[in-house]
Structures are given as C-alpha cells and as structure tokens.
Design goal:
With 195 residues, the chain is an alpha/beta fold. The protein has a domain of 115 residues: Rossmann fold (3-Layer(aba) Sandwich), CATH 3.40.50. Helices cover 42% and strands 17% of the residues. It has a five-stranded parallel sheet with strand order 3-2-1-4-5. Helix 1 runs parallel beside helix 4. The protein is globular, with a radius of gyration of 16 Å.
Length: 195
C-alpha cells in the first residue's frame, strides 16, 4: 500500500472510531456475524466456528486488523491470550472499551506489513476482512514468521471473484471510502490458498 493510501485509510478509520462511544458497552449490542449484513453472515459464522473449534485458553492468538473489535468476540470468549492489532489507535481504544473485562486482551498499534513480534510467537493468527490493507507478500511473510510451528492462520475476507464485492469496493472508492490499493489487493481464492 502506498504511504498516501495508508494515511488515507488510517484517517478514515480514526474518524470512524471517533464517532463511536467508548463508554462501557451496552449488553446485547451485536458483534461478530450478528453485526454483518445478511449476505455476509455465512462466511463470518464459519470463521467464528473455526476459531471456536481450535482455540483453547492456553493459546496465544494474534488478531490482525482488529479495528474496533467487530470480530474479536470469538477470540476473547476462548479465554486465550490475545494481541489485537490495528493501524488505528482510536479503533483499538474502542475495541478495549467493548471488552472491558477481557483480562487476556492486549492491544498494539502496528502495520499489518511490519508485525513487531518475535518469530514463533503465536499459536493462531486471525484476520477478518483486512488482507487487502497490506502488500500480500509482506503480510504473508510476517504471518508465517510469527506463527509457531503447527500454528493456524484463519481468515475471512471479500473475494475479488465476486462482481458484487468488486462493484461495492469500486463504489466506495469513488465515494472516497476506499483507496486504490485496497481495490488492487482484494483477495482471491488463489491468494487465500497461498496463505
């Protein structure tokens, strides 16, 4: 991602987080797949099921592009040690406020293209909808560098083969709500297979 595109995305997510209330969350507020549009729910339900099936309280997990914690619930409910990362400090502040009692949650501001963790740090690396925000070759290298041997990478993302997703992203690009880099880096089934 070019530095100007990265700055644009950071600004956009910082502004979005500013509009959120960071007071303690209201019980019953939806998150995860329940907060998704109906046409996206099946993929996110499967993502959450995979996480629930493999995570244990003894695991160390890394969530990439965690944003405001929209998809952090399954990681947190597992009881594992979680490091949630995002490029937006304000988004991570909202995430912290959504899960005030999560003792095993740590948030770190960082770039998906430059993960500041030692080799073999995590049993699980998870990413929901964030792979197009970084150079895929760099992101792939960092994910496998920080994964422990035998660890898991689990992701869910919009795929470029869908004309609906392509049209939606292009429409958002025209409205200034996406950058050109994110359009060019939309994931494909071949890219997911490489991951």
């Amino acid at each position: 991602m070019t530095s100007s595109d990265k700055e644009s995305e950071l600004f956009r997510y910082e502004q979005r987080a500013l509009s959120c209330d960071v007071s303690p969350p209201i019980p019953g507020v939806s998150s995860g797949y329940t907060s998704m549009p109906l046409y996206l729910r099946a993929q996110y339900i499967k993502y959450e099921q995979y996480l629930s099936n493999i995570l244990s309280s003894s695991d160390d997990a890394l969530e990439l592009c965690a944003g405001m914690g929209e998809n952090s619930g399954p990681l947190i409910s597992s009881g594992c040690n979680i490091v949630a990362t995002d490029i937006s400090p304000r988004s991570l502040a909202v995430l912290r406020s959504r899960f005030p009692s999560a003792q095993s949650l740590k948030t770190i501001v960082c770039d998906i293209e430059d993960l500041p963790f030692p080799k073999h740090s995590f049993d699980v690396v998870a990413c929901a909808g964030g792979l197009s925000y970084g150079d895929n070759q760099l992101v792939l290298q960092h994910i496998y560098r920080v994964l422990k041997p035998g660890g898991y990478f689990i992701c869910v993302d919009s795929l470029n083969h869908s004309p609906i997703y392509r049209a939606n992203r292009f429409f958002h690009y025209l409205r200034g709500k996406r950058t050109l880099s994110t359009l060019k880096r939309m994931t494909t089934t071949a890219l997911i297979a490489r991951y």
